[in-house]
Description:
CATH architecture of the largest domain: Orthogonal Bundle
Number of strands: 6
Strand content: 5-15%
Radius of gyration: 19 Å
CATH superfamily of the largest domain: Hypothetical protein, domain 2
CATH topology of the largest domain: Endonuclease III, domain 1
Mean pLDDT: 93
Number of domains: 2
Amino acid sequence: MDLFSSAGQIQPASPFDFEQSLDFIQRFPPMMGEQTLANRKLAKTISIQAQPILFELTSTGTVDAPQMQYRLTSNRSIEPETQGKVEDRIRFFLSLDDLLADFYALARKDALFWAAVQRVYGLHQVKFLTPFEIAIWAVLTQRQPIAVARNLKRALKEAYGSSLEINGARYTAFPEPAHLISASPEALNAIIKNERKVEYLLAVTRAFDLADEQFLRSGPYAEVEEWLLRIKGIGDWSAHFILIRGLGRMEKLSLTPDSVHEKELVQAVSRVYAPGGSLDGAEILRLAERYGDWQGYWGYYLRAMGAGGK
């Protein structure tokens, strides 16, 4: 089979430490086994309008003067428009345009946090590759162990994702909404084995198939949150999770009552601000307020200093 390739470069906003991104991906449970990280290079597959494309990323700069090189490989010609979409997705996936200098200016005024920041200095948030993928993940993890959800996600990818072969290795991308929109409930239930989750997955698929991602990325926060909450199967925690980890909306901290996932955040904040003790939700929200529109990043960093999280 003929293969086609293209290449380019990206300049992230400074400071940016690609090593921190790789370390985070390596220990982030939802992404385990979905990319290769050999020789400090990231290789991952994406689908653009049903065209599978493998992108390989390497760092050629420094933390304070970052530069990235990428190479794309596909089984079809990579048109300039498609290359532009992949480059945009890479930038968004690794949050390469986030101005950490503004976040760090606030962090320097917070001695306890700033001392901890040094462990992950230069880390830009690693999102899920697409907002659709994180929305599907949010449904799969409802009342489900992460290991089980990861197996279900892998099964969906193998059943519905587009793939290509390179040097005898098969690379499969997570499906786009268009791949799942025509899937029958029966076929999905054969994989998921939970009729309610299948109903939610199809609701998410229909919503994201019609979604304007630019609106989701940059539209008024309240309107985007409302749009997410209208999707059957997406509750408060899932909506906040998608807003931060899938859309990079860092204006608010993901902290909702009675969520098992927030125990990790409480533990992470308490390790820095109350060693040996435990802060309550109100105290955590008060600490977050000083970070304004960066409070989501504050929470992300605190989690990243721990074990990667969900």
